[in-house]
Amino acid sequence: MSALPATTRVGAVTLTVGALDRSVAYYRDAIGLAVIGEAPGSAHLGAGGEVLVRLVEEPGAQPDERSAGLFHLALLLPTRADLARWVQHAVDDRVPVGGASDHVVSEALYLTDPDGHGIEIYADRPREVWEGRVAQLMTTVALDLPSLLAEADPAQPWDGVPTGTTMGHVHLRVTDVPTTIAWYRDVLGFELMATYGPQAAFLAADGYHHHIGANTWHSAGQPIAGPGRARLASATLLLPEAADRDALADRVRAAGGTPERDGDGWRVTDPSGIVLRVA
What we know:
The chain is α+β, with helices and mostly antiparallel strands.
């Protein structure tokens, strides 16, 4: 089992973007997040008062699809009906969607923001459907859109994603999968839930299907993106107690890493150079 507390989850993701106003409009109008705070060169968006996406402007930054970094962030909606309402919004407002998949453990839609950052909008199937069988069940087949849309209430107007929406997981582009598994499992304390051959792995706390995804489909052997590229600046792990955060930092230190203080938490760096805020 995971060495992490059962309530461990993923928090806000920070992205650099080439044009802040353009990205704020996209995450507000297409994705349905609310603007929670703005400052010169940055904006925070989320749902129900919880910040889920932080945008930091780097004027003119270009998309990067090959470096280690973000494959997609994944916004978890509370119910299937909420996902149906989001899909109806996408249809009504002509939001470009790049894919739609049934993963057995969840149902998901996929998009790409103006800077090339991947986004998943999903809802979980009931936990009793897949708990303890993630490796056997999790797959990718076509999403039954008519069945999903049948759950959308036409009388309920679209006003953005609902309170209770969270960052369900982050899926990373990494340099090497075995090294990534060893760090997230043996150092951080996640449980390995499933692998897709040597090219992808899924890890979680508390038996969830995955809080962290990792693949080398486009990024094998590549470093993280640098300045001038729209990139993942950091992802956040939320742990319940200060003692849990400090214990994680101690494990990273014992493995040869160098945790850095970040307010009440820590910043740690994975083997691909991806920064995690432990908050």
